[in-house]
Amino acid sequence: MRAMVLRRQKPVERRPLACVERETPEPGPGELLLRVRYCGICRTDLHLVEGDMPLRRRPIVPGHQAVGVIEEMGRGVTGCKRGRRVGVPWIAGSCGACMHCRQGRENLCERLAFHGWSRDGGFASHMTVRADCAFPLPRLPDEHVAPLLCAGVVGYRALRRARIERGSTVALWGFGSSAHIGIQILRHWDCKVQVFTRSRAHQGHARALGASWVGSPKARAPSLSESAVIYAPVGELVPRALRNLAPGGTLALADIHMTPLPTMEYALLWKEKTVTSVANSTRDDVRELLRLAARIPLRSEVTLFPLEKANEALLAVKRSRLRGSAVLVNEA
Ligand SMILES: [Zn+2]
Ligand SMILES: [Zn+2]
Q1: Number of folded domains that form the chain
Q2: Is 299 exposed, middle or buried, given 0-12, 13-18 or 19+ CB atoms closer than 10 A?
Q3: Across the 332 residues of the chain, what is the mean pLDDT of every consecutive 10-residue run?
Q4: What is 203-225 written as a DSSP string?
Q5: Which ligand is nearest to the CA of 64?
Q6: Distance between CA atoms of 184 and 156, rounded to whole angstroms?
Q7: Helix, strand or coil for residue 178?
């Protein structure tokens, strides 16, 4: 098999991933061996490769938005068959026994495992995956499904955390790969969507996807929102989003990283406003998002790169040169 392997973290300009040939792994008990067709690139991959996040294993094959086909099944796997298309998200397993797991919040499990971080991921021609962390896919083109597996799932969980009601007014701050999927779900729920983003290109994209109002983060929207999601990792946006939030409203912060939050007047939070973060996602989030993807149907914009060009693809993500998501293609 072929894999893009990370041995030492460094800036993507210095080509941290090396293309290597290695032995194809055997699937262990309860695992599947997949032939990977496509793998989406997420900003988390960039954080991992460049050293903003500690490595959990070395060397490691990144990638947590893989679409592939089942080639082999390990001992004890039932309900799967060879040749079936499946998707592989960020979550690679939880302990199933801790308080969070027992309460249906496995995204908070202290022993959560991750594809492309604690076990090898999808920047490769093959990968193994726990059978209970591989998901049957809707009938959408594979390359468009790949970015749904993290950008889409996180975007969706953020909407749920923001306690959005059908037909309500929702503000989205930042308009990258998660938000451009989130807005399609909100339109499906008949919500009015306000989009705050500096980028002219993103403003046009938001309008095309049905935003009822679009403006810069310093602009004032015509009405207050009942819920809001900040998709950008910018703490300064928190007081602005709260100023635009109606009494009783909820603001969800979707990114793993955020710059420090500025001090602010208590009045911005008063009247029972709620602020919450969004941490990882559960397997139920993945299932629900994939069901919605088929029903709406969700469209993601993608730019394709051959697997061997993973360094170049990461560089394009770093420089925000792409509209939508970068996706690696395994041609072999
Ligand atoms: Zn991700
Ligand atoms: Zn647990």
Answers
A1: 2
A2: middle
A3: 97 98 97 98 92 93 98 95 97 96 95 96 98 95 93 95 97 92 97 96 94 97 98 94 98 90 96 96 96 93 95 92 87 74
A4: HHHHHHTT-SEEE-TTS--SS-E
A5: 1
A6: 10
A7: helix
Protein residues with C-beta less than 5 angstroms from the ion ligand 2: 94-95, 98, 101, 109
How far does residue 113's CA lie from ligand 2's centre (Å)?
Answer: 10
> What is the sign, positive or negative, of the torsion defined by CA atoms of 72, 77, 78, 79?
negative
> pLDDT value at position 43?
87
- Are 223 and 163 in the same domain? yes
For residues 85 and 277, is the Cβ–Cβ distance under 8 A? no
Closest CA to 105 of 283, 246, 235, 255: 283
CA of 98 from ligand 2 middle (Å) equals 4
Give residue for tokens 């991921």.
121
Q: What integer pLDDT is reported at residue 323 of this predicted model?
A: 74
pLDDT for residue 332 = 64
Angstrom distance (rounded) from CA 4 to CA 62 = 8
Asked if residue 244 belongs to a domain, the reply is yes
Q: Which ligand is nearest to the CA of 146?
A: 1
- DSSP character for 24? P
Ligand 2: centre distance to CA 34 (Å):
26
What's residue 112's pLDDT? 95
The length of the chain in residues reads 332
Domain range for 17 is 2-140+298-329
Looking at the structure, tell me whether residues 309 and 243 fall in a common domain: no
Q: Model-level pTM greater than 0.85?
A: yes
> What residues have a C-beta under 5 A from ligand 1, the ion?
42, 44, 150
The domain spanning residue 310 has which CATH number? 3.90.180.10
Q: How far is the CA of 1 from the centre of ligand 1 (A)?
A: 24
DSSP category for residue 115: B
Distance CA 228, CA 162 (A): 6
